[in-house]
Each structure stands twice: as C-alpha cells, then as structure tokens.
Amino acid sequence: MGRKRVGIVLFEDVEVLDFCGPFEVFSATRVNEEKRREEPSPFEVLLIAERPGPVTTTGGMKVLPHHTFDLCPHLDIVVSRGGLGTRNELKNPSMLEWLRARAAEAETVTADSFRSVTVEYGKHFVKDGRVFTSGGISAGMDMALTVVADYFGGEIARATARHMEYPYPESDARRIVIKA
Questions:
Q1: Cα separations in angstroms, 180 against 148, 149, 174, 175, 177
Q2: How far apart are CA 168 and CA 146, in angstroms?
Q3: What pTM does this model have?
Q4: Is the pLDDT of residue 48 over 60?
C-alpha cells in the first residue's frame, strides 16, 4: 500500500489542537516502529486552505498551508475540523463546494460540522462507514488514531500513541459531558 495523502483543511479561527493534533498523529505514524528514523509515515500530511498566505488560528498563531483549494492534489483522507471558526465557514460557498467535491472522491472523511453529519456530542468520536466524526478539540487526536487503526491496524495506532506519549483511545469513553 502506498502512502495515503491526508488533507487537513484550515480556515480563519481554526482551533490549534483541532488541526495540530491530527497532523501530529498522522505524521508520527510508522508501520515499522524499529525503523522510525529511517522510514517516513505512511501518511503524507498536507495543510489546505482556500487562499494562499497565512491562516490565523483562534490563539493568533499564523500557519502557512501547503496548498490552496485550486492547487490541491488528490486526497485519500479529508480532515475538516470544527471550532468557532466553522460558524463562518458554514456560510462560505467556496469552502462547502470544495469539501463536498473532495469528500465525494476521498476514501475517508473526518468532520466536525457538516449539514449532513450529525455529531453525537455525548461521544468522543464515531465511525460510520467512511466518515469519522469527533466532538471536542482533543477528540481529533483520538479520531486520527482510530483512522490509523482503520488503515494499518490497532498495533500501529497504539505504537503511534505510545510514541506521542498519549493514551490510546480504547473506546470513546473519554468524552466529558457536563450536565447542568
């Protein structure tokens, strides 16, 4: 199996951990842990934005995408994150059209907010066919580890979590639901 190309979509006011967490999971994955330094990740991770130039996150970090929508290569996995910035993007026809088109051709789609996706906020992440959803900023890391397990098996995903010194999500039970 060749490398899988992952496109993580950026937009103004994206939450840092929302995209950096999955970026780290996918880029830290190795099929052969013993050759961690010699072999690349089985995922090629790209940051994608609508326009060229820096994207400003909720905390003010400036991030340069690898590609714009117009110049983006084929993606096997499309990662669309949530957070407060999505409120504006839900009214952005360019974003919605691009995501619709890319989601139709991708093997796997991860999302937080789409009209056709219902996020179950009582759960940390959910897999439904080729669509993975998560609710919460840190849930994206668990979701990304679940995608790794889906492609390369649980042992590879667990090794990735160990390398990151991050607890592997044995279930979606980590989700903290506060009831008033």
A1: 35, 35, 19, 16, 10
A2: 9
A3: 0.87
A4: yes
